[in-house]
Amino acid sequence: MGTFQSWDYERMYTLSSWQKSRYNNGDWKDRINGDRLATMSPQDSSVVSMIKGSSAIGTASTCACTPSATLAGALPPLRDELASNSQDSSKHRVPGSHSTGLHSSNTHVSGQSEWKFDPARDSFDYSLSDSQCDNAFPDYYAEIDRAAMYYKDRGISEDDMNITERGNVVRAMIYDHQLYIMQTHITVEPGIFDLPRMMAILGSIHRVIVAHQGPIPNVEFVFSLADAEWNPAPFWTLCRAPEDESHWVMPDFGYWAWDNKIVGSYQQFVRELEDKSDFSKKKQLAFWRGSDSNEERHDLLRAAEGHEWADIEAIIWGRPGNFTRMVDHCDYQYLVQTEGNSYSGRLKYILNCASVVLMRRPYWIETFTHLLQSSGPDQNVIELDGFVTLPDVMSHHLSHPEDSENIARNAKELLKERYLTPAAQACYWRKMFEKWAKVQSWEPKPWTVEQKSEGEGKDQKVWEEKVWNGVTWELFMLTAYNSQGKV
């Protein structure tokens, strides 16, 4: 596997004028939605809901199920540290075994020839061993290693997990291979997607736990459901800005599932692409749908207007047939990526298409952003120096289809068939548990022991009682929905 070049580190801070004004003025940080905050305290097994004021960020969802795309970021790979942290590869799976669900039918044995990742066999295997994960995805953990290095001397304390005055967050714990939900502060109202996002992320974590046949450390953590998390606490987040070194970037909720009319489950989406990988059979058009919500998108619409190669239109909300299913994006040879409120939940889907993704330099950092390469023999995306350059770029690539096919092939081999597979996400989660545990300064416990008493004097009875700090995922999965109503 060749060396991946990340986009120039200094240039990744280059923002358009509208972005600079929004970041500098702190518009997002001050956009407060304090109408309703659902606070669920799992200390009561019924997971009672309380409504109170909140400083929860109430930005509109920018997930892949909506036409609004978002920002992403670039990060120099930490390949030297990755190499030094790689584990022993003594465990191997039986060649030819086939994975069909959480637990594959493979057996981990020693003494065989070196195991190699096979996309056809292993893409949906959530149970790869630690050594197989390192073998298959050696360059995936740059963001985890960066966060672990940041906290190596600082450490993370139990006080950092206090979310009493914070919104759009969930506090959870893994203890003895069991997922517990300790506390949630989520916004429940039309247009805010905290509840389904929370359930999707918790579902992803639980799936990883039950699939893994080896040890998983006991960890307690807080994850944010916001498109952009501004609190500098050590939260697990959907993305991070380059200057926000305190956050740990996790796989987003879309790797579980999203609105079935637009995406469906991630596994379902990936499987539907099996007959859409032939670049030559795709439409020779550049495709984009989205709201014309910012200056950059206006630039795209102006640049594409009147060109025969462009199937680029703004969404008109409320008009029937506005949405195009994500799997149908893959019918096009060229897919345009735009920025929105924060990272782009859509990006991982279109990178699965084996098409050519055209995009400006991303700002927000996701788990895979450092793997995007805009030049050289391993190029897997096309970087645009503003959308004004789109006509010239399209003119070149339409007249040099071999260049486009190489880019699409690279994206398919590196991203679709490797780092964006469900198996890769399971490995990423487990690596995150492992590195988090090393900087966590306390030992999580799902209960506390409290002294109870009854009566007085010689009739007084004293005993100790376990008080649970959270509820299991299995119970929470039922009571969270019951207490909040139908999503």
UniProtKB/TrEMBL annotation:
Domain Glycosyl transferase CAP10 stretches: 215-443
Pfam family, one: Glyco_transf_90
Protein's recorded name: Glycosyl transferase CAP10 domain-containing protein
Organism: Viridothelium virens (Speckled blister lichen)
Ranges for region Disordered: 80-114
Ranges of biased composition (kind: Polar residues): 97-113
